[in-house]
Write a structure and sequence with these properties.
single chain, about 280 residues, mainly alpha, 6 helices
Length: about 280
Amino acid sequence: MPQRTNKFVAPVCGLLMVVFAYLLYDGYIEVKNTHEQAKNIIEEQQTKHRLITDMYMAARERSVILLTMNTEDDIFVLDELNLEMAKQASLFINARERLDHVSMSDEEREIFEASKSLVSENAPLQMVVSTLFMEEEREQARELLFEQAIPGQRKVLDQIALMLSLYERNAEIIIGDIERRSQKATRDFQILALGFFVVTGIFLVYTYLAARREREILRRNAEEKAFQASHDPLTGLINRWEFENRLGQLIDNPVPGQTHIVLYLDLDQFKIVNDICG
């Protein structure tokens, strides 16, 4: 029974090593994919934050430009400010279009669409105000600026600020989820690695002990065969071949100062005893 058990230990350990190696590789791929997904999510969140910030800065800058035009009389400066208005509008639209292609939660999408609606109402009004300043219709421009354009732009900025606040809240949730997934994947990988090394260690120890036991068995078998070849099985004394071998060694390799004596003993009627008793 022990030999049968030992026969299956090596295959079972080998099978476990293969299974653990596969699971270890699968765990490594999972950790790698988790880190890759985390990297992509973080990059996407950074892009989203940058685009929302660009929209907010461009929208605020347009309000600042209109307020500057309110205090400026130089037509050339007004023309430069009007060009800057167009530039900020282009920056805002570019950031908004790019943000529109970034994945958003339902709540983020709802706020984004609301801000688009507000911008579509307020942007033309801002251009009217800018044009009136250029045409030196200052009273009408001021009236539209402070009664409609600035309040409307404030609503736009509030919506964008709400998007930033929502982004920060969602970013914390996403980062927390990424950390939990990363920790779980890393922990699972470490457990699998530990299991693999434990099974490998058991297999190596078993292999070493089995090899040592096999060498011990071979040594004992060799000694037993050598003893059987050189000794009489009945009496346990050396047989004639071993006697002649030892005698030949003593004759061929004499040691100075040593004396050897051969005692010859003859038993009468020993053949009868040998035939009867074996």
